[in-house]
Design goal:
The protein is mostly helical and 160 residues long. 60% of the residues lie in helices and 11% in strands. The protein is elongated and about 60 Å long.
Length: 160
């Protein structure tokens, strides 16, 4: 019996194959389908098609989180560019701990990766309830402590 998660993995792999190849030749489409089926079969045999390996439960909520994250990345890019290109380059780098309210490993990793993707901040250490963050400007740590990103990741993983 094929589960929804297994079928979803096949669809994601096959769609990626089609989008990246850009050639709609019947042989290549068939090759993509066979390759995707082979990868799904191997993943199934290895028992890696689970909530962490292919988190389809986050699919729809991820569509609302990613535009917000992209906006935060853009804002942070501009702030880092201003900081680095200014003649005085006043850096106020520092490290601090940020609370993490996520209940699942996928949520915690998403939060840590979101911190690292945002220019000027990087997650140094991840624990179940806190993340150590380094920032070029301490205001970045204070912004993370305010909890907006934490709240949005929690909402994405299904918490209030």
């Amino acid at each position: 019996m094929v589960s929804a998660r297994t079928f979803s993995l096949f669809l994601v792999l096959f769609a990626t194959w089609l989008l990246l190849s850009g050639i709609w030749d019947p042989f290549l489409i068939a090759s993509g389908a066979v390759s995707s089926l082979l990868v799904v079969y191997l993943a199934h045999r290895m028992s890696v098609i689970d909530g962490e390996g292919h988190p389809i439960q986050l699919s729809w909520k991820l569509l609302t989180y990613l535009p917000w994250l992209a906006w935060q990345i853009l804002i942070s890019n501009i702030a880092v560019c201003r900081m680095v290109l200014s003649p005085s380059m006043k850096l106020d780098a520092g490290s601090g701990w940020v609370s993490a309210s996520q209940k699942t490993p996928v949520g915690l990793v998403t939060f840590a990766n979101s911190i690292t993707l945002t220019p000027g901040t990087v997650a140094l250490a991840v624990y179940p309830d806190t993340i150590q963050v380094h920032a070029l400007d301490r205001s970045g740590i204070e912004e993370l402590k305010a909890g907006e990103m934490n709240r949005r990741v929690c909402a994405m993983e299904g918490q209030s």
